[in-house]
Amino acid sequence: MSSPGTLLPPVREEYERPLAPLGDIAVEAPLPAGKRIFAHAWLRKTLIALVLVIVWEIAARAVNNDLLLPTFSATLSAFVQGILSGELLQKTAVSMSVLLRGYLLGVAFAFALTSLAVSTRTGRDLLTMLTAMFNPLPSIALLPLALLWFGLGTGSLLFVLVHAVLWPLALNTYSGFQAVPATLRMTGRNYGLTGLRHVVSILVPAALPSILAGLRVGWAFAWRTLIAAELVFGTSSGSGGLGWYIFENRNELYTDRVFAGLAAVIVIGLLIEHLVFDTLERITVRRWGIQQ
Fold first, then answer.
1. Domains of the chain, with CATH numbers?
2. DSSP of 248-273, one letter per residue?
3. Whole-angstrom Cα distance, residue 204 to residue 264?
4. Which residues of the chain have a pLDDT value below 70?
5. CB 210 within 8 A of CB 114
6. What Å distances lie between residue 200 and 175, 177, 287, CA to CA?
7. CA distance 37 to 29
8. C-alpha distances in angstroms, 155 versus 88, 110, 131, 233, 258?
9. DSSP character for 278?
10. What are the tens digits of pLDDT across the range 109-156?
């Protein structure tokens, strides 16, 4: 009960307002079946690959010289035979073993160098100077030095692989760190994060799209550098990788096996690109909304 003289808020009477008819709603016609099918990226890429295969087959039959350009069917047969015999798989395992070691070493060095660059002014100057000096230098140009310093074997391959991975990854990572908003940096400092903890907890998650781009570029550089290096000195203890497989078959004029080795290089590159990097990007930056 309210006391006498208390003012009460006005009460409006309840009422219902009839809704106006919606009328005819325009419904978009469904896309034709052809457009719905071609909306899938994987199908479009598959069709492009089929077109390239057809062009290859036609060009090979027009040349009519298996030493110059074997047909796709002959290359596919050599590829399947190489897998069934185990030779192609063994060469691939050798190459991937060396590649993973060199790639991981390059990633570790790049992370250490960029962490130093964002923490100290001297580190920033060091990164800027080293990337300006060595990033334009092709890894394959270091083969003579690698042979002198590490000999004919895995050590030389690891040396050129680290060079191939280190500089593009360091540049992309540092660019990502520089693009992190100042608000996030100040938030980390307010929580008492400094040095390596600040890099790992604040900068790395915020710069993850740039880091992933650097990892992709570093992988591509490392893969092609490894194949080129193995073409020159790929043997170690009597065994070599895919590059040496291509070189040996070229010397023996097995052009179909040469193309099979090249096809293996392409297939592995596609698998790593789509199964590893696309999956990593999908479960991180796209899932977190950092990148569309």
1. 76-286 (1.10.3720.10)
2. HHHHTT-HHHHHHHHHHHHHHHHHII
3. 34
4. 1-7, 9, 11, 15, 22-40, 194, 233-239, 285-292
5. no
6. 16, 11, 19
7. 16
8. 23, 19, 23, 11, 26
9. H
10. 998 998 888 888 888 889 889 988 888 888 888 888 888 888 777 888
Residues 6+ apart with CB under 8 A from 101: 158, 161
At 207 the pLDDT is 77
Q: What is the 3-state secondary structure (H, E, C) of 66-89?
A: CCCCCCHHHHHHHHHHHHHHCHHH
Cβ count near 230 (within 10 Å): 24
CB atoms within 10 A of CB 66: 15
Torsion of CA 32, 35, 37, 41, to 10 degrees: -160
> And the tokens for 113?
């160098």
The label of the residue with tokens 């980390």 reads 188
Provide the 10 A C-beta neighbour count for residue 155.
Answer: 13
Q: How far apart are CA 265 and CA 224, in angstroms?
A: 9
Nearest Cα residue to 92 out of 259, 198, 241, 236 = 241
pLDDT at position 7 is: 67
Tokens for 206, please give them. Answer: 């915020």
Distance from C-alpha of 262 to C-alpha of 231, rounded to nearest angstrom: 12
Give the per-residue SS3 of 180-249: CCHHHHHHHHHCCCCHHHHHHHHHHHHCHHHHHHHHHHHHHHHHHHHHHHHHHHCCECCECCHHHHHHHH
Measured between its terminal Cα atoms, the distance across the chain in Å is 59
